[in-house]
Every structure is written in C-alpha cells, then in structure tokens.
Input
Amino acid sequence: MTSAYEWIKYLHIAIGCVALAGFWSAGLARKGSPLHRRAGQAFLLAMTGILVTGVPMAWHKWQDGHPVTAAFLGYLLVITATGVWTSWRAVRDKRDVVHYTGPVYVALAVLSLLSGAAILALGLKVGAPLLSGFSSIGLFVGADLLHKRWRRDRLAQRPRWWLIEHYTAMLGNGIATHVAFLGIGLPRLLPAIDGAALHYAAWFGPLIVAVGAKLWFDRRWKPAAAPTNAVRASA
Output
C-alpha cells in the first residue's frame, strides 16, 4: 500500500513539472503579454504547491533519521518562499515600495540570512561542500533584502525598481526549479547518467546560469544615460 508520504512525493513531483513548464513559458513569452502574465501566475501557483508539499517531506526526513537532509530541505523551502513572495509582491506593489518592504519582506529576509548561516555551519560541521557552497544564496539574499529595506527610499528612486526585483526573484525561483529537476528528478529517471559530475553541475549549474542572466537583464534594463548635448544645453 502506498504511504501518505509517497502520495505527497508524487504530488510534489507533478507540481514541479507544472512549475518547470510555467517558468519557460513565461520566460520565452513576450514580456507583459497575456501569455507571460498567465504563465507566470501558473508558475507561482505551482511553486506555492511545491512549498506546501515540501513541508511534510522535510518533516518526514527528520522523523526518518535524516536530520541533515531535513535541514537542507527546510533551507530550500525558506529561500524558495522568499523568491515566490518577492516576485509576486514586486508586481503587485510596484507603486508602493513601503508596502512591498513590509513585515513579511523583513521576516523572509531574516529567515533567509539565519537559515543560510545555519546551513553554512552545518556544512562545515559534517564536511559537506554542497551545503557550505549553497548557503551563499540565503546569506546573500537575506543581506540584500535587509539592505533594501533600510534604504528603501533609494530603492524607490530607481527606475523600474519593481521590474528588477521581479525578474531577480524569478531567476531565483528558476534556480530552485532546475536544481530540483537536475539534481533530484533526472538521476532517478536516468540512473545511468548519475554521478559526481552531474551532482555538482545540477546544483551549481543553474546558479551560474541565473547569475549570467541577471547580469544580462540588468544591462538591458539599465536606465539610459542623458544625452551629452542635452546635459550641456541645460548647464
């Protein structure tokens, strides 16, 4: 008989497939188009489902005598929840930076920072480079969100600040989706290709690609500099 945990795991996998499809549908669609918005909404709803099903899975690992795995899953839930929340609220609160950086924003920032520090300490304790390296995401995200909260007046002055916040968070969501697929799902589907190389490429490959995409998007949406002639004329 299939256990409750198995049903939750299968549901988690199914929702993950929907999230993966939604991510690429939104990413490849014309920005601002109805398809982009609908696919993005479907993706965020699927990510919410992943969070809901991920909690009992982490708890099961803890109860089953795998505290390190449970702690890492809990950490992934924190940074994923942060990305889902900020990518959604950045669009909803694009005219109100104060509301965007409210109590939930601060709570997620603190949780990301603390969970990143905890995973770093755990990784060093058990000698797991994967944990230690991946802790940098929580540490960076938490510190970055707190910095923006303290200087939200400057954040509000940035042209299209909400758009930058949105696509940055969505790239973070993409990391979580692809890490889960490449690092957990793919080796089970194709056991023959599993190995150390795939293991590290699956966990750090999406991170490297997302950083590159972030730099490209930042350059694309960078505010245009004022023309030299116009500056001289106003002098």
